[in-house]
Amino acid sequence: MNRAISTRRIGAGRPTREQAEQRHEELLDYALKLFLDKGYELTTMEAIALALGMTKRTVYARYPDKSALFKAAVQRAVDLFTVPLEKLHAAASDDLEMTLTNIARIRIANVMTPVGIRLQRILSAESYRFPEIFNRAFEQSTKPTIDFLAAVLRQHNAAGTTDVTDPERAASAFMSLVVGGPTRIAVSGNKIDKVELEARIRFSVRLFLNGALRR
Fold first, then answer.
1. What is the pLDDT of residues 161-192, one digit of tens each?
2. Do 113 and 199 reside in the same domain of the chain?
3. DSSP-derived secondary structure for the chain
């Protein structure tokens, strides 16, 4: 589950380990926001430190340069965005349509959180400069879901429910078809009515199943 971004200030005195970790998370969350608002080039370590009431020395003690801070901020967003495998397993059932619908709902709900939208926007804006952040986000967040869906399709192939010759490619296509559209709408700043979103999910899942079910 995505955690809400905290902005609570720590009081004076030597911080506890928990307080220090909270301040570190605030640093990464705010840094990502500023990188997105101003762009990588115009964002400075000094501006981030000043806005959070930190000294430059404190920030530089953790991150030697802006590139290191940027990558750490993106990694935190990826960690918050990633759906735990246990949640995917809990969404699975013997009913393939229901399983696919549940997975779609989980992924789309994740994208529509503040962290999810911020992550997608920063990947779009800065992947050309740091291609590794896109690859990392895919490997840690998207690929586990694709692998899970591929395993589900292989199980249904074995049971004779589906006839999918390439489960991995089919799982990737499912993500593009069912999740990709709502993701683009959310990242663009537009909102989807809940009823319309549910209709989109169900229509797209059935469209996918029309090509996957054994005839």
1. 999 999 999 999 999 999 999 999 988 999 88
2. yes
3. -PPPPP-PPP-SSPPPHHHHHHHHHHHHHHHHHHHHHH-TTT--HHHHHHHTT--HHHHHHH-SSHHHHHHHHHHHHHHHHSPPHHHHHHH--S-HHHHHHHHHHHHHHHHTSHHHHHHHHHHHHHTTT-HHHHHHHIIIIIHHHHHHHHHHHHHHHHHTSB--S-HHHHHHHHIIIIIHHHHHHHHTT----HHHHHHHHHHHHHHHHHHHB--
Query: Which residues lie across from 213 on neighbouring strands?
Result: 162
Same domain, 121 and 143: yes
- Residue 13: its pLDDT value, please? 59
Q: Are residues 107 and 180 in the same domain?
A: yes
Assess contact for 127 and 14: CB atoms under 8 A: no
Estimate the crossing angle of helix 17-38 against helix 66-81, to 10 degrees: 100
To the question of pTM greater than 0.70 for the whole model, the response is yes
| Position 12 in a domain | no
Over residues 143-155, the pLDDT tens digits come to 999 999 999 999 9
Domain encompassing residue 90: 82-212
Phi-psi sector, 53: left (phi>0), alpha (psi -120 to 50), beta = left
Structural domain contains residue 2: no
In a domain, 9, yes or no: no
Q: What is the pLDDT of residues 18-71, one digit of tens each?
A: 888 999 999 999 999 999 999 999 999 999 999 999 999 999 999 999 999 999
